[in-house]
Design goal:
heterodimer, A: mainly beta, seven-stranded mixed sheet, four-stranded antiparallel sheet, globular, B: mainly beta, six-stranded mixed sheet, 49% strand
Chain lengths: 115, 114
């Protein structure tokens, strides 16, 4: 398996523009997570899905952020409009999230820079 | 709620030194415990885990023992290498309404000098 695939790896955009980050989880995994990592705040969980349904979006910082999972093999995180303080590395992760000891598999991340 | 607390970094060591990174947890019962590692420019990956009290997880020369008496899961390595330079995260899984997610500590940056 290719693992969790995120695109793009790097994104530089101007303030006010819309940004869309994409994620393909590992086939067969039923939980998907979006994280944001910054030096100041560390690793933050933004939202997670079980079986394509959003379970907890309390980590989404503002209405400017939205996430969708239209099917089991694809998810997007959108920021509209983007602001410089959104600059961070965004990770997607997936797992077999139905109990037991769920190992989360992370993508390589998207480094977002908003100028 | 359930949570983990790990020691603040950064930690800087010379090659072949002994490493300890402290992690304590707060939880009802005895959840599984994990250590994840993040190498530069990469996502997190599972380093080791322990699924019940008194278990020892080990991988790549790293060890951690699940100690319920002290609610701890400290990460240790007897002789670190330059290639161990990374950020290390302690984690435990959610339960009930948060089943399926992981709660991560703040991360501890380790730098090993030759």
């Amino acid at each position: 398996d290719a693992g969790v695939i995120q695109s793009p790896r790097h994104e530089v955009t101007e303030m006010g523009q819309e940004v869309t980050l994409r994620c393909k989880p590992i086939s067969g995994h039923n939980s998907l997570f979006w994280y944001r990592q910054t030096m100041m705040r560390g690793l933050e969980l933004l939202i997670y899905f079980n079986n394509n349904v959003p379970i907890d979006d309390s980590g989404m910082p503002e209405d400017r952020f939205s996430a969708k999972m239209p099917n089991a093999s694809f998810s997007t995180l959108k920021i509209q409009p983007s602001e410089p303080r959104d600059s961070a590395v965004y990770f997607c992760a997936s797992s077999l999230g139905t109990g037991g000891t769920p190992e989360a598999f992370f993508g390589q991340g998207t480094r977002l820079t908003v100028v | 709620g359930d949570s983990v607390t790990q020691m603040e970094g950064p930690v800087t060591l010379s090659e072949e030194a002994f490493l300890t990174i402290n992690c304590t947890y707060t939880a009802t019962g005895y959840p599984s415990l994990f250590w994840y590692v993040q190498y530069p420019g990469e996502g997190l990956q599972l380093l080791l885990k322990a699924t019940k009290a008194d278990d020892k997880g080990s991988n790549k020369g790293f060890e951690a023992t699940y100690r319920k008496e002290t609610t701890s899961f400290h990460l240790e390595k007897g002789s670190v290498q330059v290639s161990d330079s990374a950020v290390y995260f302690c984690a435990l899984p959610g339960r009930g309404s948060t089943l399926g997610r992981l709660y991560f500590g703040r991360g501890t940056q380790l730098t090993v000098w030759p």
